[in-house]
Amino acid sequence: MTVPFIDLTRINQPYAADVKSALDALIESGEFVLGESVRRFEENFAKRMRAAHAIGVANGPDGVYLALLALGLQPGEEVICPVFGYPAAAVAIPRIGATPIFAEVDENFLIDPESVRALVSERTRAILAVHTFGRACNMTALEQISSEFGLHLIEDATHACGAEIGGTPVGSIGIAGIYSFYPSRNLGAIGDGGMIVTNNEELAARLRLYRDLGRDADGRTVDLGVSSRLEDFQAAVLDLKLASLDEDNADRIANADFYREQLNGETFAMPAPVDDLGHVYNMFVIRHAQRDQLRNFLKERLVETRVHYPRPLHLEPCFQYLGYQEGQFPTAERLCKEVLSLPINPGLSRREIDEVVHAMSLFAQSFPAAAK
Ligand SMILES: Cc1ncc(COP(=O)(O)O)c(C=O)c1O
Fold first, then answer.
1. What is the pLDDT of residue 276?
2. How far apart are CA 307 and CA 285, in angstroms?
3. Which residue's CA is minimally distant from atom 14 of ligand 1?
4. pLDDT at 370 exceeding the cut of 60
5. Average of per-residue pLDDT values in the chain
6. What pLDDT is stored for residue 101 in this prediction?
7. Domain 245-366, CATH 3.40.5.60 — does that match?
8. 365 CA distance to ligand 1 centroid (A)?
9. Residue 197 contacts residue 207 (beta carbons within 8 Å)
10. Which residues contact residue 122 at a Cβ distance below 8 angstroms, ignoring those fewer than 6 apart?
11. Which of helix, strand or coil describes residue 316?
């Protein structure tokens, strides 16, 4: 039996009928861009994230770029961001002429506040906290540093839609929170989409302007923006799926707990449990010293896995111009050699997860050596 890493048909099938009626209604309305569906979803999403404002955009990286633009960052200024992760958020920083300054991460793959503190310079304007894999960053420590140095604290909550810290949804803690609704996300569209949430009235007004080419409500182009608008069709789909976000996250957490119960924690380093929605497992990432052997072993037994992420960002070709060298981020460099993502999505059957656990246990018998 093949265990898929993710099955988007299975995840979206339950919404098919409602999506088709939403599409019919949309065609009827003739409103396809920045229409009623976008307004309604922005309202519902802001409510769910307990933020004052939500601004729909085309994708995650545009969200980061627009937040930096609307916060007034200038060429030559610096943004501190984690060295471990998908390049999307960091790539948005040079788009505005600013410089990404990479900070080391901890064993939970999250930006290390002490590394951030050591990197603050007179050119630093913002910290970009990425809640990688769905686990909330240490926002208390990052808030402390950002207020001490007068820096903007921006969150990329793409992996952590629905996660909370002390009852506060991540994304609504910093000055701006960015979400991508790429189909494999906890709240995934049937295509591309993104959102920025903020409690700052002025910032919200500027973001609405900049996502629509710089046009104000009277249609005058008053500033240099971009066309990065969430489409009404995707907004209608996301609004339908928002209602099951918490239930889906509960499924992901239950799957994670099951893996922790069943798998040998000596052999496989697994994400530690976090209470109160502190982790919503967009990905369940384990570590093992023989990661490549493990991956092949599982593949032979028809268990699909992924490697998030094979290279730390300072070694990504697109960032070579920054002049970082191998060895500068020992933790991130080691993590990239050991990580393996297991199937975790809602809708996975217990039989499928049992299959993964069984294959992993067989591997543990052959390769008992634990991740360091
Ligand atoms: C943390 C993070 N932010 C943003 C993105 C990218 O968003 P998009 O898929 O909308 O380009 C990703 C994609 O994997 C991501 O992992």
1. 83
2. 9
3. 86
4. no
5. 96
6. 98
7. no
8. 36
9. no
10. none
11. coil
**From the alpha carbon of 181, which atom of ligand 1 is closest?**
10
What is the distance between the alpha carbons of residues 270 and 277, in angstroms, rounded to a whole number?
Answer: 17
What is the reported pTM?
A: 0.97
Residue among 113, 103, 104 nearest 144 (CA) = 113
Token pair of 163 as six digits? 């996660």
Q: Is 101 helix (H, G, I), strand (E, B) or coil?
A: strand
Q: For strands 194-198 and 164-165, give the pairing.
A: unpaired
**Cα of 317 to ligand 1 centre, how many Å?**
18
**285: nearest Cα among 303, 304, 270, 301:** 270
Tell me, in angstroms, the distance from the centre of ligand 1 to residue 61's CA.
Answer: 7
Per-residue tokens: 65:
């770029």
Alpha-carbon distance values, 7 to 16, 18, 148 (Å): 15, 19, 45
What's the rounded Cα separation, in Å, for the pair 48 and 163?
11
State which fold the 8-242 domain adopts.
Answer: Aspartate Aminotransferase; domain 2 (3.40.640)
Domain boundaries, the chain: 8-242, 245-366
Distance CA 52, CA 47 (A): 8
CA of 184 to the centre of ligand 1 (A): 10
pLDDT at 162 over 90: yes
Q: Would the CATH topology of 8-242 be identical to that of 245-366?
A: no
- Nearest residue to 172 (alpha-carbon basis) of 218, 204, 124: 204
Query: Residue 368 pLDDT more than 80?
Result: no
Q: Which two tokens stand for residue 37?
A: 């569906």
- Tell me the C-alpha distance between 319 and 304, whole Å: 30
Q: Give, as one character, the DSSP assignment of residue 266.
A: T
* pLDDT tier, 369 (very low <50, low <70, confident <90, very high otherwise): low
Q: Which atom of ligand 1 is nearest to the CA of 59?
A: 10
Single-letter amino acid, residue 121: S
The answer for residues whose C-beta is within 8 angstroms of residue 169's C-beta and 6 or more apart is 48, 49, 50, 51, 162, 163
Give me the amino acid identity at 203.
Answer: L
Nearest CA to ligand 1 atom 1: 158
